[in-house]
Amino acid sequence: MAVRTRRTAAKRREYLWCYVLLLPLLLAFGGFTLWPIVASWWYSFFDWDGVGTPTEWVGVANFIEVLTAPDFWSAFWHSFLFSLVALFIELPLALAFAILLNNVRLRGRNMYRLALFVPVVTTTAVVGIVFVALLDPVRGAVNEVLFATGLVDSPINFLGSTVTALPTVMGIDLWKGFGISLIYWLAALQTVPKELIEAAQLDGARRFAIVRHIMVPVMAPIAIVIMLLLFQRSLGTFDLVQAMTAGGPVYSTDVVPTYIFRYAFSPEMQAPRYGFACAAGVIFGLLTLVLTLLQAPALKYRKRVAA
To answer: Where in the cell is it found (predicted)?
Structure first.
């Protein structure tokens, strides 16, 4: 009995130390994740400028204003376009490169992987500032090369035109996040049994047939997870847009995060509207959740087919 009691006490002390070690993480989660979510919901019901304690209760007026604001829906459409580019251009392109770089007979494949992944670990603000300098219509290196090769007769204002600004930022965003999609696919390719590929090769199957009938079906459940991760990441694009255009020109590159940032912190506003910005953030979060849940049936279908 005494031995059992000592064992129980030892286990309790062990569990207690586990909770003690988890405490800093729980505090950080509560302070930097849970509390901002709760506070955003609470502040969204006030007309508040961020100074002092909010007192002017407006109910759902902020939500109605956001939902009826054309600028919000324009920004949401731009955010959605970032996701479409990521899903329909970045995702299949990364798969093609992953299949190529997964070939053990390719010399220097690790160097190619590194080169493609370097943009991911590069600070986004630095990337934005560098590309702003490169794309400058007066002294930018890109326009100088275009002039030198005779491809253009006049400088192209990539970031100053409402026609070219959004595609330019989207292209740079694709380049910046391409490496992480590549890593996802490379990890998924490791789940494909080599025996299946070798058997198909012995039967005379071509490379495209192996990819279509073996690799893609085996990776399908993982591919849906990759799609969800990429969708959520691209829908919340903020730092690159803020560093390069801040939503301009004439809000042609405005996305929902820059829209929220402008109303909460930008000096463009006569006074900050934290309550309105919180309401926009809440609505954006709910819309993101709905769009993500709409993809859940595809995941269930793949699981049912795999079973």
So the answer is: Cell membrane
Dihedral (CA of 200, 201, 206, 210) sign: positive
Q: Are 56 and 271 in contact (CB under 8 A)?
A: no
- pLDDT for 84 beyond 80: yes
**3-state class of 135 per DSSP?**
coil
Distance separating alpha carbons of residues 202 and 214, to the nearest angstrom: 14
Query: Percentage of the chain surpassing pLDDT 90?
Result: 52
- Could you tell me which residues come within 8 angstroms of residue 151 by beta carbon, excluding any fewer than 6 positions away? none
Query: Of 1.10.3720.10, 3.20.20.70, 1.10.580.10, 2.30.110.10, which CATH number belongs to 44-306?
Result: 1.10.3720.10
CB contact at 8 A, 292 and 79 = no
Q: What is the pLDDT of residues 179-193, one digit of tens each?
A: 999 999 999 988 888
List the beta bridge partners of residue 57. 46
| Alpha carbons 88 and 174: distance in angstroms, whole number | 11
Asked if residues 133 and 140 have their Cβ atoms less than 8 Å apart, the reply is yes
